[in-house]
Amino acid sequence: MSLLREEDRQTLIREFEGLTRSVQLLFFSRETDCTHCGETRQVLDELSGLSERITVKEVSFEEERETAGKYRIDKVPAIVVSDENGTDTGVRFFGIPAGYEFVSLVGAVKDAGSGAVELSPAVQEQVRRIEDPVHIQVFVTPSCPYCPAAVRLAHQMALINPNITADMVEATEFPQLAQRYNVRGVPRSVVNDDYPIEGAVPEQAFLDTVLRALGKAETPMQMAEQA
């Protein structure tokens, strides 16, 4: 049984006609002890059937440890958004991208496949200047209507700077991780393990937390003075 209604399929087909680059979705799964791997596989199969520019490559988490290590995958189901050659974009999904998070997956494919992001020019400039590793985890649930905005913001930062890795983490699938990061409501984003962001905040406020995590907080005025 299809997960997508025919009406939604046709809408997505039209949206994906704007892709100018091929996108490969690396799907990390395992046959046992993975409740949502089968459902995630179906989501990806249906999505890839909507455009010739979208492909899915399934990777066995158990049998291909070297590949999992290369992309720093430590739990499944996991999706890495890459180009057609497998070059990493820094965009990750941990857990099934269902409900509102299907919107996040569609957004990630569109952004990676078009090379365009919606961040303001000022924020893009600051993001591109980041030279240190940044790891952003955005905790979500499929029923949260505010979560896709936070996820896409983090993902777009990763898309324009290879030093940034941004994960969508489905909180109910990884309860121990959610407990570790004190997730009591979603979206809750955590930068470099220690700097939390509550809710879906404006892009500059989100970036300010990233810069604080690096000890390099700058204001737009300071940026202008340095230009």
Overall, the morphology is: globular
Helix proportion of residues, in percent? Answer: 25-40%
Q: Helix/strand-derived class?
A: alpha/beta
How would you sum up the major sheet? Answer: 8 strands, mixed
Number of strands: 8
Round the mean pLDDT to the nearest integer and report it: 93
Q: What is Rg?
A: 17 Å
Strand order of the largest sheet: 2-1-3-4-6-5-7-8
| Low-confidence segments | 219-225
> β content, as a range?
15-25%
SSE pattern, N- to C-terminal: HEHEHEEHHEHEHEEHH
Task: Provide an overview of this structure.
- This protein is of the alpha/beta class and 227 residues long.
- It is 39% helix and 22% strand.
- The chain has helices spanning 6-16, 37-48, 65-70, 101-114, 121-128, 147-160, 175-180, 203-213, 220-226; strands at residues 23-29, 54-60, 78-83, 88-94, 134-140, 164-170, 188-191, 195-198.
- Strands 2-1-3-4-6-5-7-8 form an eight-stranded mixed beta sheet.
- Strand 3 (78-83) and strand 4 (88-94) form a beta hairpin.
- Helix 4 runs parallel beside helix 6.
- The radius of gyration is 17 Å and the shape is globular.
- It starts with 5 loop residues before the first helix and ends with a helix.
